[in-house]
Amino acid sequence: xxxxxxxxxxxxxxxxxxxxxxxxxxxxxxxxxxxxxxxxxxxxxxxxxxxxxxxxxxxxxxxxxxxxxxxxxxxxxxxxxxxxxxxxxxxxxxxxxxxxxxxxxxxxxxxxxxxxxxxxxxxxxxxxxxxxxxxxxxxxxxxxxxxxxxxxxxxxxxxxxxxxxxxxxxxxxxxxxxxxxxxxxxxxxxxxxxxxxxxxxxxxxxxxxxxx
Length: 212
Hints:
With 212 residues, this protein is α+β, with helices and mostly antiparallel strands. It has two domains: 10-92, Phosphorylase Kinase, domain 1; 96-205, Transferase(Phosphotransferase), domain 1. It has helices at 47-50, 53-67, 99-109, 115-134, 179-184, 191-205; strands at 10-11, 14-22, 26-33, 38-45, 77-83, 86-92, 96-98, 138-139, 147-150, 156-158, 163-164. The chain has a six-stranded antiparallel beta sheet. A three-stranded antiparallel beta sheet has the order 7-9-10. Helix 4 (115-134) packs antiparallel against helix 6 (191-205). The longest helix is centred in the middle third of the chain and has 20 residues, at 115-134. The two termini are 19 Å apart.
């Protein structure tokens, strides 16, 4: 996939260093804020999404919802902006890997997660989701790929750009969302039991479900 932004471009005070991911709505880059000497993660909308007013509005809602959350296991949102028709969301950069990649590595090395590790991961996920839910915010896509593991600490982080207050069924990874909510498009507290348990099953077996 061709990156939306050329490497070396600036968005506001942020320098674009490299692309580190992409999804249905756009791309994610590693950036740098020179004045603060801080690396950040920057999500930008794709070109086709920028032309859709409903998607740009949803992107702004997600940014606002996530920006109000302060939790050690939720990636922090720093900034949101629009420059040269490019909408961007600036977040804490987590140096490490995601849970799905770590699951694949351990499966190939025949080094499954220990029981205590599984319980620690699940506990931190549940604590973060409960914190957000108490503030009227939900996460629309709890999957191993959206759970980050930091290199330098034992902290686990949930990607913050998928927190929002309204769920549409086409926003989610369908293998991880309970079918009753696909039909009703209403996310209730108990749906986290389903998505978290599905993620727990993936950790224990070492295999992640397909994204669709």
